[in-house]
Sequence to fold (540 residues):
Amino acid sequence: MATVIRSMHDLTGLAPHQIRQRIRAGQWRRPTAGLAPGYTQANLAVVPRALAYDFLLFCQRNPQPCPLLEVLDPGAHEPRELAPGADIRTDIPRYRVYRNGTLAEEVDDLRAYWRDDLVGFLLGCSFTFEHPLMDAGMRIRHIELGVNVPMFITNRPCKPAGVFHGPLVVSMRPLPADDVVRAVQITSRFPAVHGAPIHVGDPTVLGICDVQRPDFGDAVPVAPGEVPVFWACGVTPQAVMMQAKPVLALTHAPGHMFISDRRDSTLAVL
Amino acid sequence: MATVIRSMHDLTGLAPHQIRQRIRAGQWRRPTAGLAPGYTQANLAVVPRALAYDFLLFCQRNPQPCPLLEVLDPGAHEPRELAPGADIRTDIPRYRVYRNGTLAEEVDDLRAYWRDDLVGFLLGCSFTFEHPLMDAGMRIRHIELGVNVPMFITNRPCKPAGVFHGPLVVSMRPLPADDVVRAVQITSRFPAVHGAPIHVGDPTVLGICDVQRPDFGDAVPVAPGEVPVFWACGVTPQAVMMQAKPVLALTHAPGHMFISDRRDSTLAVL
Fold:
């Protein structure tokens, strides 16, 4: 039995495939934020083939909350584009198993649940645009506080597709007013990972009554002189998927992402 | 019977929906280049639902040659996103009907061919990025010569999806070497319509032996001091679709596009 790794520092400097190997060996069962900096981390969603067309179409129609990075062939578990040799069933530290839209269990390994008709979707995550914001000198409040990003259900419906429909969920980051333009520019370069903010400034426009009471994640303070900036959030497709109550759906556990071999910088346009 | 319109000039200043109305009435059966400048024109591809997942996945995996603008629900013929009130069966000047991958006929109206299981795909076209290039002072050779853009089958395979596979097809525009950087910048802003060039400079890298012998379209001269610039081309999905020999496939006729209500500028990132 391989030794459990206690600290992120013991993974510093390792390549993505080396970290995935340790995850696969059961040595790391914790969140992945901060691991393999510069490499793209992805959300995982798996549904039966019978629902895959509707879900793919939902992502196509709602690219900001559902930025597809790779769709695997039915039954396939190797993400050949993002990480050749990897296995989406074993290389994520923690998974969730949903039955009929309800969380059934959290597990370390999906092999016992796998079926030949399952289709894996890997979607972009906000880690990819937070790094360039920080490189530009911006401080990301929830990261500094060591809490989860605050997320809100908005009054904006996603474009429906087949059985999938529901409201847009957004994440919020407070930024000094002077940084807003630069933040829009930087994140616009990353349409593959949520892209530009969907709103700046007035939470009530999105139907958010109290920015201190998020629907998911943790509240963070908005200081005087700061503006709340809202981005489409990867929780949207998960919420929409659960509402459709699929017989079986498999996802990563929150914060426990798939670490790919793709460099964040390759996702930038311009 | 409405009068046939003889000259583009008689359509000058009309809004997209007014032009579509005249097309629907049978008054305009000619190419759409130059009509409703500033508004997005789109390629049409229609396949039975049984093939739609594979085709949607092919587009997701190959966004440069297959930039999806809208996917209609099965049986639906109104593109609600791009042009509410329009009808993809009647609002294009000329269509092609393919049976088992072979061109069966060219028609003016798809209503007699329509079925409840057909899925319509509208894809971006190069007109949208040619205008900003011309606005920046670049001269587009095939437009100046009044011929079709030269297109080449490359040695680069697309990423396959289900029954769909085949080589990338590119279009070529010669540009003065000094304009190449600006052309890359401008077209990078339009990932929804082929985006940045896929290659600049050496046709042989793409397996193109003679840039004066295109596989489709017309040859155009490359002058001394000019560099051939290659973009992914919307002929790719058509070629790939025909190779899969679907029982039935419907498309626009070359050059006869769907004129949407969407402004080109809304497709720009940054």
In short: The two ends of chain A are 46 Å apart (CA to CA). Chain A touches chain B through 21 residues (CB under 8 Å). The mean pLDDT of chain A is 95. The first helix of chain A runs from residue 16 to 24.
